[in-house]
Amino acid sequence: MAHSYTPGLRVAEYAVITRERRLPLKGEVLVQIGDKLSAETVVAKTELPGAVHPVNAVNILNISPQELEECLAVRIGDAVKREQIVASSKLFLGLFKSQVRAPVDGVFESFSKITGQMIFREPPIPVTVDAYLDGIVTQVFPEEGIEIQSRGTFIQGIFGVGGETHGTVKMVCASSEEILDESKIPSNCRGSILVGGALLTLGAIEKAKRLGAKAIVVGGFSSQDLRRLLGYDLGVAITGSESIGITLILTEGFGQIAMARRAFDLLAKNEGKKASCSGATQIRAGVIRPEIIIAQQDVAISVETEHEPKGLEIGSIVRVIREPYFGKLGRVTSLPTELAVLETEAKVRVLEVEFDDGTRVLLPRANVEMIEG
């Protein structure tokens, strides 16, 4: 059977999902191998150093840098409060006094006999990393973090914005072709991951944010509305760190595109269950896809189910990612080995795809992505 590889999105009812959870710098790991965790469990913590604030003390005190040490009112390492007097000098026969005050709450960190500066540092910033998934700790990285493994339903999207979150799956559209507008956002959606159909309106996302929804998963969204939502053009950066108050995952792309039936049906089947999701996306090298993970630790996953994604084969389900068939799903019916000549006279590998209506077309393999089950 003909066989090749093409990039694809994974949509699997049962899969094993492994994620690493690491701190940005060394700290303390709080869990052990074998621990069963919920998504909210803090697995590691550390502290980021606070901001540094230099003060040119010798200019304020009108002294030389060598005289600074004997004018200090605090010692290195002492905690200080904003506006606390930390150094002083007497001028004009001791009748007048100049004073240096702490610029922030924090710690007096150091001073220099060369520059005459005093250095203050704000309190450290606590940083924690949670498990993200309901799962089991399979590996510990000392002072850094863990690897957690979960099993259950795994659905990748094509584009997303917003960070990691978790909530309860809630269907708000009856079919994958429905438009998700403001009228379909329920009042009782706090803490929910809302699942829509073909298109999400800007009004709907704003209402969902006001009502406390955690995320929205939908087929498509307007690129113009995305700019309005973010307040800027996104460009080609890695997404996932946007502070927009909600996570948005598109399963198909920009515009009015029905969510792939398999993804919609799997989400509907898991309505009411807890899910973890992330909008992080990177299209270039080291591809990162937005994802929805519905952990089901009690599900036994067989060797046949737990597999690495296969390459493209006859019978594979693919989505077309170029016009004039953009967004359409079909099944591969032929994988010719010989190169075909396009209208542009370029020679490329092609494949034949049959759409749901029975139509068959010949497409460059670069124009499709595989829907991996």
Any overview of this molecule?
The protein is mostly beta strands and 373 residues long. It has three domains: 3-17 and 150-295, Glucose Oxidase, domain 1, CATH 3.50.30; 52-121, OB fold (Dihydrolipoamide Acetyltransferase, E2P), CATH 2.40.50; 312-372, SH3 type barrels (Roll), CATH 2.30.30. The protein has helices at residues 57-61, 68-71, 202-210, 223-230, 261-269, and strands at residues 3-4, 8-22, 28-29, 36-37, 42-48, 52-56, 79-80, 85-91, 96-101, 106-111, 117-121, 125-130, 135-141, 145-156, 159-161, 165-171, 179-180, 192-195, 199-200, 215-221, 247-254, 274-278, 291-295, 312-313, 317-320, 329-334, 340-341, 347-348, 350-355, 360-364, 368-372. The longest helix is centred in the middle third of the chain and has 9 residues, at 202-210.
Features:
mainly beta, SH3 type barrels, 3 domains, four-stranded antiparallel β-sheet, 5 helices, about 10% helix, elongated
Question: What's the arrangement of secondary structure elements?
Answer:
Layout: E1 3-4, E2 8-22, E3 28-29, E4 36-37, E5 42-48, E6 52-56, H1 57-61, H2 68-71, E7 79-80, E8 85-91, E9 96-101, E10 106-111, E11 117-121, E12 125-130, E13 135-141, E14 145-156, E15 159-161, E16 165-171, E17 179-180, E18 192-195, E19 199-200, H3 202-210, E20 215-221, H4 223-230, E21 247-254, H5 261-269, E22 274-278, E23 291-295, E24 312-313, E25 317-320, E26 329-334, E27 340-341, E28 347-348, E29 350-355, E30 360-364, E31 368-372
Parallel strand pairs: 2-31, 16-18, 17-19, 18-20, 20-21
Antiparallel strand pairs: 1-24, 2-14, 3-5, 4-13, 5-12, 6-11, 7-10, 8-9, 10-11, 13-14, 14-23, 15-21, 16-22, 22-23, 25-26, 25-31, 26-29, 27-28, 29-30
